[in-house]
UniProtKB/TrEMBL annotation:
Its EC number is 3.2.1.31. Residues 191-270 form the Glycoside hydrolase family 2 immunoglobulin-like beta-sandwich domain. It comes from the Bacteria. One of its GO terms (molecular function) is beta-glucuronidase activity. It holds the Pfam family Glyco_hydro_2. This is Beta-glucuronidase. It is an enzyme of class 3 (hydrolase).
Length: 621
């Protein structure tokens, strides 16, 4: 599915703004028929949860309704008219007047409806969108619904971020010709100084196709004809981390000499490869520095905001970060486009977070159920995961900033059934995109000794919290066990390894001269300890701190108004650790820090490589 763009043959109207809003009412079974009752309005894009002062709306489980009127331009006669929703979290239904025109399950990927036959150019119609925030064992991410003794429906989920819902991304009305371009795929390579671009174009009708490559100045540097082929660019300018260069692929459908549809797809020429224990971009070793992030701001929730987009990337540049992971779902397309233009490397992650019932057991003290079973996460869950993979890769496949797919965060990869669940998904991801490496983020329970799926992936991404959930306040013991752990993964699998999460909750303004958890100094010391270990590990290719900024979570006594592991506060003020990271990362330019091998901790000489002596995990990240 191509992102709507304004071209010489296509027009685009943004439908963002204030929409009428209502929570489902059992007394109004078909709210899309007629004007929504009440006087509430909600901003689009934004999550609805924090907009209102009513606790019942914030805690609502089920459907809510958005509505506005839309006028179709008179000039769109003879064109196909489509509605596009960039996301509806987690399920959406779209009505044009009284007619259901689209339904989609999955909260972080786009969907659209061709509404040409339901309206006439120049006419106005009533657009109603229902959004359902329910999570079940057959959704990605998963969850469950229960009913309290007083009859309230309650949502339980297994991820540690707030289940914001609504229309958090833009809504569009756009036109395209009857005969049109349906999809474009761009795969790039480099031979010497020549860029090689394999392209494929899908069209609605069998129609002659012309493709042209324009450089950043708009000059044509290559061209071809046909729905698929290979283009070359002599003396190519590569897309590099920190130094982005984008070309435009202009695809045109022809009727004789006339252009009947035109679409422009930006792309960058770069290669990505895993070789031995190295991660290579354009044939050069790359070392990831950066964060796991969240789409999370006050009031807006997960609502996309261009001001925060710009400011967050400015902070990434200031702190010396060259990359981030889209934890724990695919972000708005505007984020990836910005990364493309500014040379920031992205690990693009699916919304498969929470596929681990062991974490819930660790928090409640109740023995967990098996994660993978007919009664828990099963073939329906796997099918939802597979469909989500298809949609994410289809949406993001042409972004040069995306260098790796992360297909899950902290699954129960140590449990029976994990391989049967994930192996078909890995195979599917490789079929959909054979050009990018695959990874997943390994939970603390999964070790190099018991993990059942690590060999299926190209890069090992490890989430570890030694010094926080384990050995809290004891950074000396944490350093010993962290190094044992990481060396075990390297020796067992011989793959590149990176730390995809490490962090400590920190309250701004909390200070101590001792190693006191929650203090700003402890967060600095915690990071320093991790970095000493990373620098001693061969085959270590990156470090993503958890988290970029504080973010909202569900209620819990182990959370103080959300997760406080941010290096920046939720309103993007730096904690002391931001300066610690800036001192380390600035000037690295994607190269791994070097260290004298003699600095390895002496305790590792005793031959112990396992984690048998580590205490049990006392919480979740």
């Amino acid at each position: 599915m191509l992102k709507p763009r304004s071209t010489i043959t296509r027009e685009l109207i943004n439908l963002d703004g204030l929409w009428r809003f209502a929570v489902e009412n059992p007394n109004v079974p078909e709210p899309w028929k007629g004007v929504l009752g009440g006087n509430l309005e909600a901003a689009v894009p934004s999550s609805y949860n924090d907009l209102f002062a009513d606790q019942k709306i914030r805690d609502h489980v089920g459907w809510v309704w958005y509505q506005r009127t839309v006028r179709v331009p008179r000039g769109w006669t003879g064109e196909r008219v489509l509605l596009r929703l960039d996301a509806a979290t987690h399920e959406g239904k779209v009505y044009v007047d009284d007619v259901l025109v689209a339904r989609h399950v999955g909260g972080y990927t786009p969907f659209e409806a061709d509404i040409t036959d339901h309206l006439s150019p120049g006419d106005e119609f009533r657009l109603t969108v229902g959004v359902n925030n329910e999570l079940t064992s057959a959704t990605i991410p998963p969850g469950s619904i229960s009913v309290s003794q007083d009859g309230r429906r309650q949502q339980t989920y297994l991820h540690d971020f707030y289940n914001y819902a609504g229309l958090a991304r833009s809504v569009w009305l756009y036109s395209k010709p009857e005969r049109h371009i349906s999809d474009i795929t761009v795969v790039t390579g480099v031979i010497g100084r020549t860029g090689v671009i394999d392209y494929s174009v899908e069209t609605s009708h069998k129609t002659p196709v012309r493709v042209r490559v324009l450089d950043a100045a708009g000059h044509e540097v290559s061209s071809a004809e046909g729905t698929q082929g290979t283009l070359t660019i002599e003396d190519v300018s590569l897309w590099r981390p920190g130094v982005a260069y984008l070309y435009n692929l202009v695809v045109e459908l022809l009727d004789g000499e006339d252009v009947i549809d035109s679409y422009t797809e930006p792309f960058g020429v770069r290669t990505v490869e895993v070789r031995g224990t190295q991660f290579l971009i354009n044939g050069e070793p790359f070392y990831f520095t950066g964060f796991g992030k969240h789409e999370d701001t006050a009031v807006r929730g997960k609502g996309h905001d261009n001001a925060y987009l710009v400011h967050d990337f400015q902070l990434l540049d200031w702190v010396g970060a060259n990359s981030f992971r889209t934890s724990h779902y695919p972000y708005a397309e505007e984020v990836l486009e910005f990364a493309d233009r500014h040379g920031i490397v992205v690990v693009d992650e699916t919304a498969a977070v929470g596929l681990n019932l062991g974490v819930q057991g660790g928090l409640t003290g109740v023995g967990p159920k098996p994660t993978f079973s007919p009664e828990t996460f099963n073939h329906e869950t796997q099918a939802a995961h597979a469909q989500h993979l298809r949609e994410v890769i289809s949406r993001d496949k042409n972004h040069p900033s995306v260098v790796m797919w992360s297909i899950a965060n902290e699954p129960a990869s140590n449990e029976d059934g994990a391989r049967e669940f994930f192996e078909p998904l890995v195979q599917l991801a490789r079929e959909l995109d054979p050009t990018r490496p695959l990874t997943y983020a390994a939970v603390m329970f999964a070790t190099f000794q018991n993990d059942k799926i690590a060999d299926l992936f190209d890069v090992l991404s490890i989430n570890r919290y030694y010094g926080w959930y384990i050995f809290t306040g004891d950074l000396q013991s944490a350093e010993i066990y962290l190094e044992r752990d990481l060396r075990g993964w390297v020796e067992a699998f011989g793959k590149p390894i990176m730390m995809s999460e490490y962090g400590a909750d920190t309250m701004p303004g909390q200070h101590s001269i001792w190693d006191m958890p929650w203090s700003e100094e402890y967060q600095q010391s915690f990071l320093d300890m991790n970095h000493r270990v990373f620098d001693r590990i061969d085959g270590f290719v990156g470090e993503h701190v958890w988290n970029f900024a504080d973010f909202q979570t569900s209620n819990g006594i182990h959370r103080v108004d959300g997760n406080r592991k941010g290096v920046f506060s939720r309103d993007r003020k730096p904690k002391a650790s931001a300066h610690t990271l800036r001192a380390r990362w600035t000037g690295l330019n994607g190269a791994k820090p070097s260290v004298d091998d003699t600095e390895e901790t002496e305790v590792l000489e005793n031959g112990t490589t396992g984690l048998d002596a580590a205490p049990a995990l006392e919480g979740a990240k």
